Amino acid sequence: MHELGIAFQIVKEVDALAEKNKTKAVKKVTLEIGEVSTIVPRYLYDVWPWACKNNSKHLKDCQLEIIELKAISYCKKCKKFFDTVNNGVTCPKCKKTDTYLVKGNEAVIKSIEVKE
Ligand SMILES: [Zn+2]
C-alpha cells in the first residue's frame, strides 16, 4: 500500500501552500484521481486523517473528497475513443493494440477549501 506515502505527499504540499498563503486551517481537499491511476481511493480515505494529524500544521481536521475520473483510450487506426477499464489496450472495434491512454491515470489536487 503506497497510499500512505501519497497522502503524506499531498498533505505536505497543501500544508506548504497554506503556510505560504497564511491560511489558518484547511477545511477540505478535493482530489481528482483517474480510474487507472495506481491509487486506490478507499485506501487513501483510510490513511488521510492519520496523515493530516501527524504530518501537518494546517490540516489537523481536514476532510478529503475524491472524484474518480473515467479512463479513456484512443485507437490510432479507428480514430475513436474507448473505455479503458473494460478493454485495456485492445481496441474493442478492430482488436488492435495500437492505442494510447488519453486520460485516467492522473492524480491532481482539484480544490482546497479553507476555514474563514
Ligand atoms: Zn481500433
Task: Write structural notes for this entry.
The chain is an alpha+beta fold and 116 residues long. The chain has a domain at 3-70 and 103-114: hypothetical protein PF0899 fold. Helices cover 32% and strands 32% of the residues. It has three helices and six strands. It has helices at residues 3-20, 41-55, 84-87; strands spanning 26-34, 63-69, 72-75, 80-83, 99-103, 107-114. The strands form two sheets. Strands 2-1-6 form a three-stranded mixed β-sheet, covered by helices on one side. Strands 4-3-5 form a three-stranded antiparallel β-sheet. β1 (26-34), α2 and β2 form a beta-alpha-beta unit. α1 (3-20) crosses α2. It is elongated, with a radius of gyration of 18 Å. It starts with a helix and ends with a strand.
Features:
116 residues, alpha+beta, hypothetical protein PF0899 fold, 3-stranded mixed sheet, 3-stranded antiparallel sheet, 3 helices, 6 strands, 32% helix, 32% strand, binds zinc ion
